[in-house]
Design goal:
40% of the residues lie in helices and 13% in strands. The strands form 2 sheets. It has a 5-stranded parallel beta sheet with strand order 7-6-5-8-9. A 4-stranded parallel beta sheet has the order 2-1-3-4, sandwiched between helices. The relative contact order is 0.16. The structure holds phosphoric acid mono(formamide)ester (CP) and norvaline.
């Protein structure tokens, strides 16, 4: 039996496959066929060690709409919270379920799960990256401009997990990414290196936004950094995406945010609730993009329209 495909970071799949997943997500969104239930009898285990609204609801809804089922598991209610080794839990989950989605603060632990799992492990966010978010984000850009290739994207704020996935996407999809962060909040050098010549690190948000087709930001304090909130708000003053910053971008530019958002911190209400914002479409696209991913990972061979993964 061939080893399972895992999706721990975007580059776990070739660019061509990622592009076909985006096209498939758009097709599934436009068709919304209730008879399309290729995951009948399939079960996705979802291990959430951190809070979630969009990721949980989109995966659970995707499984239900495709004919399968999803299990919500938190450390509080499972033996994970009482110290069962994550590898042991994974062996058991993968003997009963068809895939495991995990959200935690350890990319290394997710890799350890993948090492012992007989079914796909999907990263639903780690401290390092958020690949499922980028599937939806790229879908949103493709819907707005037809393609992301050759676009200029400005990332404003914290060089965090979502920024890392944008860096990876820049090299995979061939767009320019300008990252503006305060000193000390730059993305991890390994992720910057992965972006190669597609990425530029800057200090000045205005310079990053100049001529941008997409302006994107995220919270200043991610989950687990709550105690740093006040210090971070000071450090990030001047990095808020407001209307003045948006005027630097092209007249067609769109605004993205993975959500949840803090109006008055990383983004002004006038921007996130304004005409350039695509954040609700972006959030909804989590459902469609993950349907395309789940179908590719779990649907039987020959399922019409499903993306085929090659080992
Ligand atoms: N964007 C995102 O992952 O949202 P949740 O934390 O609500 O899942
Ligand atoms: N950077 C944020 C993303 C939330 C979806 C966090 O890790 O909390």
């Amino acid at each position: 039996m061939s080893p399972p495909h895992h999706f721990l970071r975007l580059s776990d799949l070739p660019t061509e496959t990622l592009s076909r997943l985006i096209d498939r997500a758009i097709a599934l969104k436009n068709r919304r066929d209730p008879q399309h239930r290729p995951l009948l009898g399939k079960v996705l285990a979802m291990v959430f060690a951190k809070s979630s609204t969009r990721t949980r609801v989109s995966f659970e809804t995707a499984m239900a709409q495709l004919g399968g089922h999803a299990l919500f598991l938190s450390p509080r209610d499972t033996q994970l919270g009482r110290g069962e080794p994550v590898e042991d839990t994974t062996r058991v989950l993968s003997s009963m379920c068809d895939a495991v989605m995990v959200r935690n603060d350890s990319q290394a632990q997710q890799a350890a799960m993948a090492a012992v799992s007989t079914v796909p492990i999907i990263n639903g966010l780690s401290e390092a990256c958020h690949p499922c978010q980028l599937l939806a984000d790229i879908q949103t850009v493709v819907e707005a401009r037809g393609s992301i290739e050759g676009a200029r994207v400005a990332w404003i704020g914290d060089g965090n997990n979502v920024c890392h996935s944008w860096l990876e996407a820049a090299s995979l999809f061939g767009f320019e990414l300008r990252v503006a962060t305060p000193e000390g909040f730059e993305p991890d050098p390994d992720w910057v290196a992965a972006a190669g010549e597609q990425a530029r690190l800057l200090r000045d948000p205005a310079e990053a936004s100049e001529g941008a087709d997409v302006v994107v930001t995220d919270v200043w304090a991610s989950m687990g950094q709550e105690e740093e909130h006040a210090r971070r708000c000071e450090a990030f003053a001047g990095y808020r995406v407001d209307e003045a910053l948006m005027t630097r971008a092209t007249s067609e530019a769109i605004f993205l945010h993975c959500l949840p958002a803090h109006r008055g911190e990383e983004v002004d209400a006038a921007v996130i609730d304004g005409p350039r914002s695509r954040v609700w479409q972006e959030a909804e696209n989590r459902l469609h993009a993950q349907k395309a991913l789940l179908e590719a990972l779990l649907a039987p061979a020959g399922t019409p329209g499903a993306v085929t993964l090659v080992n």
